[in-house]
Amino acid sequence: MPVARVGVIGGGQLARLMQAPAIGLGVDLVVLLEDPGSGAGPVVHHTILGSPDSEEAIRSLAAVSDVVTVDHEVLDLDLLRRLEHDGILIRPTSATLALAADKLAQKRFFEQAGIPVACFRPVTTIDDFDRAAADFRSVVLKMARTGYDGRGVWIRPDRSEAERVLAEGDELLVEQAVDTTVELAVVLTRSPSGEVVVYDPVQTIQQGGMCRAVLGPAPVTPHLDEAARTLARSVAEHLESIGTMAVEMFCVDDRLLVNEVAPRPHNSGHHTIDACVTSQFENHLRAVLALPLGDPSLRSPAAMVNLVGSGEGTDPRHRLARGLAADPGAKIHLYDKSPRPGRKIGHVTVCDDEADAALERAWQVVDVMGGEVAR
Amino acid sequence: MPVARVGVIGGGQLARLMQAPAIGLGVDLVVLLEDPGSGAGPVVHHTILGSPDSEEAIRSLAAVSDVVTVDHEVLDLDLLRRLEHDGILIRPTSATLALAADKLAQKRFFEQAGIPVACFRPVTTIDDFDRAAADFRSVVLKMARTGYDGRGVWIRPDRSEAERVLAEGDELLVEQAVDTTVELAVVLTRSPSGEVVVYDPVQTIQQGGMCRAVLGPAPVTPHLDEAARTLARSVAEHLESIGTMAVEMFCVDDRLLVNEVAPRPHNSGHHTIDACVTSQFENHLRAVLALPLGDPSLRSPAAMVNLVGSGEGTDPRHRLARGLAADPGAKIHLYDKSPRPGRKIGHVTVCDDEADAALERAWQVVDVMGGEVAR
Questions:
Q1: What does the DSSP assignment read for A40-95?
Q2: Which residue from B214, B218, B215, B142 is spatially nearest to B176, judged by alpha carbons?
Q3: Residue A189 in contact with residue A286, Cβ under 8 Å?
Q4: Predicted confidence (pLDDT) per residue in A306-342, tens digit
Q5: pTM, entire model
Q6: What residues have CB less than 8 Å from B316, skipping those under 6 apart?
Q7: Residues β-bridged to residue B14
């Protein structure tokens, strides 16, 4: 008999990466997935085949689980609300997931809560866009929903691009494009009792809106480090999140602006598997099961680089031996996914005395394995 | 498509603990087991139900695996030899497994190879026993085969106990009982190419012949530490072992004697999961797949204590929350096994600035969880 069963909606890399700490805790993962042949499917015993938006499938998942959590956030929120109403325990809750899924609602919520965000406004017409462009000088255009990994985000678009995007009819917002000194992410875990553990803030290196690399600790002053932790904690408390959450921030000189939140284990916390006492995935499981949280301390400076499909016909899975040989201290994590261009198919973490040295080593392993290299 | 498939004969905690690094490497484990409800069964996708001594079952396992390895060493060696002869790749080989399974053959092999062992001789009659007891002054009586975790070992038995054991008709040996200063274990991994990585020697704390706790680094002089590494490497090279292996040693003042070897990931290396750059399980998988080996460095002093069923009606699985609350930095590993008295059902690892402090903390967690406590 396992200690407990955690149902996961979605079988991608996040569910896959939950399995190692689940094994330690004696917890069974049950994963609802559409593709049993990649991601979490090949590494867990209990899978349920189905769509993450199928009521029948989620009810089947919940029937064998003590609690249900999620691997991604593009979900049918009305369905989740209905299931919660019927007594199914979903962590994070549909209310938290709804705010994460709607960038406009999220910004409004933060503004009301006194959490600093970049100037923003909804746009529905090209006139709205023109006014925002004039007022903000430089803008980012975003779809309010379903954008991730750079999809649905247009950085400093020209007028004709904005017209084209507006013609699609999606709900959109513009934000002021700020001159960011450094982009930060703070991962934390909050349990139903309100216990919170905050990981060390990290620097994220973005490319085309996708997180490519992470360095910890972040190269910021102790004052900013502390401010980032406090801000992230405040976000989690306002959202009443349960589980692990990432708060992405822009650091503009000595000011912090919250960019987005992801109420789940997040790419900016993948280094915690190898670099922290307790990983973001273990703490996520502990939190959704209302177990006490673990020490989030960073054991050493570290860097994580995503392994991204390069579209050059090379498959990093066939170059594992070269990657391992390149650096005996590197930790390679493969997701058992086909290397489509731009797709995250693994990550490499290196711990070293300095984060910069760790980053250089991690990039080298990615390079050797034939992943897209974007230094 | 996984990077490779590794078949494991046996579905206990060792197979279970291989799954986390298999996930990282993108490797599928396929486990041949009799009890799908505990140990490795609940945490891997591919299982084959059957006896570890069933030719049909092992052939089924091999048919879907790139290489076959083992979770324990009480195996039908004639069967494994036959399968190897038919071209099935088994690592470690049946030759290495045969020497590990037969303590008398092992001692003779070591003696011939110039590897220091305690004085020993076979015994078949009580006269043999009497002579050995007179010559060696103090003896340990052992079954040559199938003894583990203290079963099949009698420390300083009196004559009547020896008579009783002899009457069972098993193949037996006696060894000189040495006045051990400290018991050491050296875990290492050897690949088919002959590449060897050696983990830091650890102190093992035995109770009734069962390993109860491990501390690393071992409290020995640099000279002895180096001698232990050299000796372990020599053992692995003589045995031509492939995969992870543990070499247990007695330290008698400044002399080292090899006690036993286990040609597989071993209890004395469980701390490597949380305390080393690359765990003994990851390096085992790398070795059996002929992949380059990982850095075995100890990242900090550490201690591991086994969680052993106490027979007091408490189930540590029901006390996980208490264990986690007792020490946010402790790493608890449960094997999803019922807590029969004397049965290893999990382990707790703690990293700290000093191994002694780590040991104290690990014992406290075991105590809180209701495991047998034997400080």
A1: TGGG-SEEEES-TT-HHHHHHHHHT-SEEEES-S---HHHHHHHHHTT--BSS-HH
A2: B142
A3: yes
A4: 999 887 778 889 999 999 999 999 999 999 999 888 8
A5: 0.96
A6: B307, B323, B334, B339, B345, B346, B369, B370, B371
A7: none
Task: With beta carbons under 8 A apart, name residues in chain A contacting B320.
Answer: 3, 25-26, 291
Give yes or no for residue B222 having a pLDDT over 70. Answer: yes
Closest Cα in chain B, distance from residue A335 (Å):
6
- Please report the number of interchain residue pairs, chain A to chain B, with beta-carbon separation below 8 angstroms: 128
Closest among A292, A285, A367, A289 to A323, alpha carbons compared? A367
pLDDT at B374 over 70: no
| Structure-block tokens of residue B68 | 């076959």
Which chain A residue is nearest to residue B328, measuring alpha carbons? A294
Max distance between CA atoms of chain A, in angstroms, equals 63
Is B277 part of the contact surface with chain A (CB cutoff 8 Å)?
A: yes
Distance, CA of A318 to CA of B33 (rounded, Å): 30
Among A22-31, A162-171, B111-120, the range scoring the smallest mean pLDDT is A162-171
Tens digit of pLDDT for each residue in B103-138? 999 999 999 999 999 999 999 999 999 999 999 999
CA distance A25 to chain B (A): 6
- What residue in A sits closest to B322 (Cα-Cα)? A292
Residues from chain B that touch A278, judged by Cβ atoms under 8 A, are 328-329
User: Rounded mean pLDDT of A51-74?
Assistant: 94
Query: Residue B85 is encoded by which pair of tokens?
Result: 């002869």
pLDDT digits (tens, 9 = 90+) for B68-83: 999 987 789 999 999 9
Do residues B27 and A334 lie in contact, with contact meaning Cβ atoms separated by under 8 Å?
A: no
A299 in contact with B at a CB cutoff of 8 Å?
A: yes
What is the Cα–Cα distance from A175 to A198, expressed in whole angstroms? Answer: 28
CB A79 within 8 A of CB A62: no
Q: Which residues of A touch B284 (CB under 8 A)?
A: none
Candidates A16, A294, A317; nearest CB to B328: A294
For the record, the structure tokens of B29 come out as 């484990």
Band the pLDDT of B209: cuts 50, 70, 90.
confident
